[in-house]
């Protein structure tokens, strides 16, 4: 990552067995202030197991909670399937692999930070903990130079390809990459790609 870059990281669950009867997930992610969290979005995993209601029988659809907050460089996230109004849990339980949450970060300063899942709770329908293993992550923020999209200190075809992934975008677009807007006009278009191509072969110290 280069300073100023905005990027997403998914928090995912893998190999969940239906027999564990997962009902809720909570985790606490720590990171150093070289990063700022801009947004946290719920992933599709838990929601796909929500049970539809039956209006004719007066049974409402199952609901869920997704909640997050940040406190002193710790992100806390909770995602829970709720019981029916009768207090009963549904009869279908989550299983398999999927994304629980997508976190959007901005790289603010040079340096590196681990992304540590310092506490993770996976609970079944009666609050028992489900055993699991955790994988942490690392982010390195290096000095960035113009036209070098992948921070390998040279301008070549890879940089054109990376910039072209943001082709046709503007800020707030999901594929927007501020680094690819090399003339800083708020659009990534053919002009930016020509400018990068014009610097082919440039190397940085
Ligand atoms: Ca490069
Ligand atoms: Ca541009």
Please provide a written account of the structure.
By secondary structure, this protein is mainly beta. The chain has 2 domains: 6-141, Immunoglobulin-like, CATH 2.60.40.680; 157-198, Dockerin domain (Type 1 dockerin domain). Helix content is 8%, strand content 37%. It contains 2 helices and 8 strands, in the order ββββββββαα. The protein has helices at residues 157-164, 190-198, and strands at 6-16, 22-30, 35-42, 64-71, 74-81, 96-107, 111-124, 137-141. Strands 4-5-2-7-8 form a 5-stranded antiparallel β-sheet, with no helix packed on it. Strands 1-6-3 form a 3-stranded antiparallel β-sheet, with no helix packed on it. β4 and β5 (74-81) form a beta hairpin. α1 packs antiparallel against α2. The longest helix is centred in the last third of the chain and has 9 residues, at 190-198. The model has no long low-confidence stretch (mean pLDDT 92). The structure holds calcium ion (2 copies). The site of one calcium ion has 9 residues, from α1.
């Amino acid at each position: 990552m280069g300073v100023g870059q905005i990027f997403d990281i998914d928090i995912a669950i893998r190999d969940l067995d239906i027999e564990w009867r997962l009902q809720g997930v909570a985790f606490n992610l720590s990171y150093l202030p070289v990063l700022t969290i801009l947004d946290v979005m719920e992933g599709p995993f838990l929601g796909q197991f929500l049970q539809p209601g039956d209006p004719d029988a007066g049974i409402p659809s199952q609901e869920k909670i997704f909640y997050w907050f940040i406190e002193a460089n710790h992100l806390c996230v909770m995602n829970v399937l709720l019981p029916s109004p009768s207090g009963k849990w549904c009869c279908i339980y989550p299983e398999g692999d999927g994304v629980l949450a997508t976190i959007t970060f901005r790289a603010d300063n040079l340096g590196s930070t681990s992304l540590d899942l310092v506490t993770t709770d996976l609970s079944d329908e009666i609050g028992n903990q489900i055993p699991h293993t955790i994988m942490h992550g690392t982010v390195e923020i290096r000095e960035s130079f113009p036209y070098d999209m992948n921070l390998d200190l040279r301008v070549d075809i890879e940089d054109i390809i990376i910039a072209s992934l943001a082709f046709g975008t503007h800020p707030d677009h999901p594929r927007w990459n501020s680094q690819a807007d090399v003339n800083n006009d708020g659009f990534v278009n053919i002009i930016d790609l020509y400018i990068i191509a014009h610097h082919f072969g440039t190397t940085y110290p």
